[in-house]
Specification:
Blueprint (H helix, E strand, L loop, with lengths): L2 H12 L3 E2 H8 L3 H13 L4 E5 L2 E5 L5 H10 L2 H13 L4 H8 L3 H13 L3 E5 L5 E5 L2 H10 L4 H17 L11
Antiparallel strand pairs: 1-3, 2-3, 4-5
Helix pairs in contact: 1-3, 4-8, 6-7
Amino acid sequence: MTHQRTRIREFVSDHPGIHFNELTRALDLAPGQVQYHLKKLKRKDAITEESLYGRTHYYTPDYGPWERGALAVLRRETARDILVYLMTNGPSTPGIVADGLNIARSTLEWHLDHLVEQELVDKQRDTQNHITLVLSHPEETARMLRLVEPSVADRLVDRFTRLVDGLLAGEPDATENDS
């Protein structure tokens, strides 16, 4: 294996679920160079890829389908914040979570769709059809959270999204809780 392929494989091993753009930035390599080496690594089954929610994520082959989906979602700061909120505060209604995180309800729902799809959160309904958000697999989710180290670029994109959501909703202090 060449030096660059070894470097890419080790980086993916240390940062499971990393997406393509972050990988190229972190390794300071040209996108074409990374594509070339990833293609070779995939042929040798040293790396697997999964495209979810507009990003292609990379893993070593020892991650199963649930773990790959969970890690892809957890690479987004707001999704992580939602899970940490539920771990800290227990089952909560969507409105309480949105208020607690100071995010727009539409932003919460976008991330919840993915969290539910990846079996990280369950939406439980009571007899009056009120929704409560509950962690699906708390122990496994905590383990996955420990594997994800957010990049500065990922945090900036998520914070920009929060700012825009707040401005659209007429909330001038939408980034107040982000510092």
